[in-house]
Amino acid sequence: MPDVNLRLEELNKPSVDAGLLELRAVFDRFDKDSSGHIDRYELRLVLEELGKDPSDKDIEKMLADGDRDGNNLIDWQEFAGMMGHKVDAPMSSEDEDAAVLAEVFKVFDLDGSGFIDRTELKAMMASLETKSFRAPPEEEVDAMLNDADQNRDGKIDYEEFCKVMLEHQNWG
Prior knowledge:
Layout (H helix, E strand, L loop, with lengths): L7 H5 L5 H13 L6 E2 L1 H10 L6 H11 L7 E2 H7 L10 H16 L6 E3 H10 L10 H11 L6 E3 H11 L4
Antiparallel strand pairs: 1-2, 3-4
Helix pairs in contact: 7-8
């Protein structure tokens, strides 16, 4: 479980580079079996999903270019290096979860106050609406706020947000 005891000052510090989180999501998409490595089969699948038709020679070259430790696999650090990012150590799942929660909280906290109020929660739910997802009615937004608002001040602070997100999500 990530450390949810971050203070508001820490939320405003640059946490994990958002580009690095996006890159990690791309790596995870390539890593179909969640092994922590991309093998030639996974590399081929993703390239085919992207509409490419790589030859065996293309796959071998891509693996050889990215594989720094010679195990015929590309791990997270090697992948990040291929994409121009230096990653000194693998990001732990707890660090990644905490970084994601902090970034999501910042998105919901539209005015940057350090709290999510009813108006912000309603606006975020409405912004997520698609053909397959309908924004919840006002009564459900109120129920969400009431469920998360442990100290009954009418808004959700970061700690309350993390608690409710971790209770309702499988973060790892």
